[in-house]
Amino acid sequence: MYGLTHPVSCTLEIRKSRFIGCVEPVSDRAAAQQRVAELRAQHPDAAHVCWALLAGGHSAAVDDGEPSGTAGRPMLEVLRHQQLDGVLATVVRYFGGTKLGAGGLVRAYTEAIAQALQQADLIPVQRMRTLHCQLPFAQESTARRLLDQLGGELLTVSHSDGVQLDVRLEEKAAEDFLQQLQTTCRGDVSWQDAVDED
């Protein structure tokens, strides 16, 4: 999976209609909706502000008044084809007076996002995993040392009936952490994936 380092835009003119395509990094749907609202305010005379989102396992495709399936969905497919995550694609359309037809609209919206992505700097995205672990008191220092070795982050610690740790690691490192912790604790550890709020 890849993300973007910064926003990139391009402008296409097709049969007197102007398509302003932009791709930019976003963290979630709320941030995407806020950005789309900003674009609507910046372009009050635009006929449409269509958008697509891939972020954190969530997706969205909005045609904003264009015929169903001619704008948001094609833009979303471009993002999926490029294996992107944490990316909002928007196209602001100023209608030029000539209808493009369904096929023409699909091509125009697809091309606007594809051209913007050609100019974008992509970076690999590391998938993170948050775990809630419970283990014996005697194994706390071992767990902390292992977490440090694997480049993880200790989020919270509590002590009651054993030690409860909330940790965050890159997905592959999380598997290694759990496997080594199970071995070290001789199976006397329990864990579950925590629900990420981001």
TrEMBL record:
UniProt cross-references to InterPro entries, sorted A to Z: EFG_III/V (IPR035647), Impact (IPR023582), Impact_N (IPR001498), Impact_N_sf (IPR036956), Ribosomal_Su5_D2-typ_SF (IPR020568), UPF0029_Impact_C (IPR015269)
Entry GO MF terms: anion binding; guanyl ribonucleotide binding; ribonucleoside triphosphate phosphatase activity
A GO CC annotation given for this chain: cytoplasm
SUPFAM superfamilies: EF-G C-terminal domain-like, Ribosomal protein S5 domain 2-like
Domain of life: Bacteria
GO biological process: regulation of translational initiation
A Pfam family hit: DUF1949
Record domain Impact N-terminal: where: 15-117
Domain UPF0029 per the UniProt entry, residue ranges: 133-187
Stored PANTHER family: IMPACT FAMILY MEMBER YIGZ (PTHR16301:SF20), IMPACT-RELATED (PTHR16301)
Family as reported in the entry's similarity comment: Belongs to the IMPACT family.
Name by which UniProt lists this protein: Uncharacterized protein, YigZ family
Organism: Halopseudomonas salegens
